[in-house]
């Protein structure tokens, strides 16, 4: 038996989880579970090929990573769920499939050093650039991180390609051996990379370097939706496909219409993955006995909290996802992921969840468009040290034209725009009750959220599973964020609120 030391939802569309915020979870798994996971993976490309023909004529550039294993006090191996899969017999000895050829050799994926793994995978992706038909990572954040890695390391990568000799920074002997078989002197390719990267223009960089890319294979629903603008910027608006819905606890199903807009994504449950039950959402908030429904008794349009019983030993485990039934494929329900059950922010009677916070950030960021500025990362916390307490939102901005960046007044207005987007209970607390103070935005310097990820990885998070926590409370993380603040902004006025009359 193996224990998955996991962030919940490594390949599903779900928000902040254990390791991202500094905690870890242990989920039981068994060897036979790999066969079920492999079965689900094997269905992804046949579905994609219905919508994007010719995927057997090239390669996929995927940035995939493992994490070092640990052991529990009783001696059980503990590792992230995707590490279990990538190290499994099913993955390492998978039969040749022309629809699933990666640019990255297994050795580069199985290298436990994050830098060496990313560097070698990026190098192979550049070498095979004209054969790449799709780019991806588990989460949208992973693909964004890969492009940022290219921004920082393109000069060394171009030098390796020009000379045909791998950088001495790559010390893993198995990685050096497999990459050296691929890497040959290529002056023309090196010149091309330098030309595309030297001027610092990263708009459409994915399509420019990998010109035959047809879509991005990433999760951009749930917490990952905030990466859509930056991925559009990097890719020239390539389609973004969310192919499957899974978690550390259990793999659930797949998206049978992968080319739809991210806001329209729904997943078809595969009943053979586990035993699924559902709590009607209007009951799921109560601790008392609740009604459990099986797959056959769900209704279109209604929302449910997902409960799973797995082959690996979980019994009626409340996953914490709120799903809405959108329809049926034959008799299998199709779900849209709505949100995580847990509330992110609360100062008084207010309760702000992740979806609402995401919407508020999106609405406020509309004010930045005329200044060619985007919010590339954010997180939050409820500051109760002040009287009254207030919401603090950390923003990292991408300012494409520093000479025409947003002024302090514009960023102050962004605070108010966020407050106008929050629910009536919040606005009542701000306006009528004075129990919540003005919302604050703290702009942090570029690279801060990269440091935040590095810190999480140093504490045991997996680079492959990491997701920026949308709410933080861990003191070292908050100290890191506060040490990188470059400007502070408060809402200049109270949001709109009027009392509702009841008759």
From TrEMBL:
This is Indole-3-acetic acid-amido synthetase GH3.1. Residues 356-474 form the GH3 C-terminal domain. Keywords: Ligase. It comes from the Eukaryota. Pfam families: GH3 (PF03321), GH3_C (PF23572), GH3_M (PF23571). GO terms for molecular function: acid-amino acid ligase activity. Residues 1-22 are annotated as: Disordered. Belongs to the IAA-amido conjugating enzyme family. Coiled coil: none annotated. Residues 267-340 form the GH3 middle domain. InterPro entries: GH3, GH3_C, GH3_M. GO terms for cellular component: cytoplasm.
């Amino acid at each position: 038996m193996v224990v998955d030391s996991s962030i919940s939802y490594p390949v599903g569309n779900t928000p902040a989880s254990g390791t991202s915020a500094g905690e870890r979870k242990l989920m039981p798994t068994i060897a036979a579970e790999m066969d079920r996971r492999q079965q689900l993976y094997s269905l992804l490309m046949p579905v994609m090929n219905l919508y994007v023909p010719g995927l057997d004529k090239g390669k996929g550039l995927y940035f995939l990573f493992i994490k070092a294993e640990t052991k529990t006090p009783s001696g059980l191996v503990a590792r992230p769920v995707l590490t279990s899969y990538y190290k499994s017999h099913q993955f390492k000895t998978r039969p040749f499939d022309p629809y699933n050829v990666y640019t990255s050799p297994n050795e580069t994926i199985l290298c436990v050093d994050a830098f060496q793994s990313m560097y070698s995978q990026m190098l192979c992706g550049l070498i095979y650039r004209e054969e790449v038909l799709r780019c991806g990572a588990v989460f949208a954040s992973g693909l964004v991180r890969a492009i940022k890695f290219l921004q920082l390391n393109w000069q060394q990568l171009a030098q390796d390609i020009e000379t045909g000799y791998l950088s001495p920074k790559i010390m893993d002997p198995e990685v050096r051996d497999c990459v050296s078989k691929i890497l040959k002197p290529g002056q023309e390719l090196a010149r091309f990379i330098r030309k595309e990267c030297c001027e610092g223009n990263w708009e459409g960089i994915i399509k420019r370097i990998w010109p035959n890319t047809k879509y991005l294979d990433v999760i951009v629903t749930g917490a990952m939706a905030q990466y859509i603008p930056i991925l559009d910027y990097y890719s020239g608006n390539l389609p973004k496909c969310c192919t499957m819905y899974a978690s550390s606890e259990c793999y659930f199903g797949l998206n049978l219409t992968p080319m739809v807009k991210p806001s329209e994504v729904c997943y078809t449950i595969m009943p053979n993955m586990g035993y699924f039950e559902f709590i009607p959402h209007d009951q799921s908030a109560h601790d008392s006995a609740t009604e459990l429904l099986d797959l056959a008794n769900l209704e279109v349009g209604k929302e449910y909290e997902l409960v799973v019983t797995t082959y690996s030993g979980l019994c009626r485990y409340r996953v914490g996802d709120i799903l809405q039934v959108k329809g049926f494929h034959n008799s299998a329900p199709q779900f849209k992921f709505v949100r995580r059950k847990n509330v992110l922010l609360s100062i008084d009677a207010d309760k702000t969840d992740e979806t609402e916070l995401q919407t508020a950030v999106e609405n406020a960021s509309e004010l930045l468009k005329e200044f060619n500025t985007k919010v590339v990362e954010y997180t939050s916390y409820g500051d109760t040290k002040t009287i009254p307490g207030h919401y603090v939102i950390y923003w990292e901005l991408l300012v494409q034209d520093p000479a025409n960046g947003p002024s302090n007044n514009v960023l102050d207005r962004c605070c108010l725009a966020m407050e106008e987007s929050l629910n009536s209970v919040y606005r009542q607390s701000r306006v009528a009750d004075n129990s919540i103070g003005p919302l604050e935005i703290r702009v942090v310097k570029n690279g801060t959220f990269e440091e935040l990820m590095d810190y999480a990885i140093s504490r045991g998070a997996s680079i492959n599973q990491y997701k920026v926590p949308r709410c933080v409370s861990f003191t070292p993380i908050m100290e890191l964020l506060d040490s990188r603040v470059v400007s502070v902004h408060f809402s200049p006025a109270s949001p709109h609120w009027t009392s509702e009359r009841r008759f």
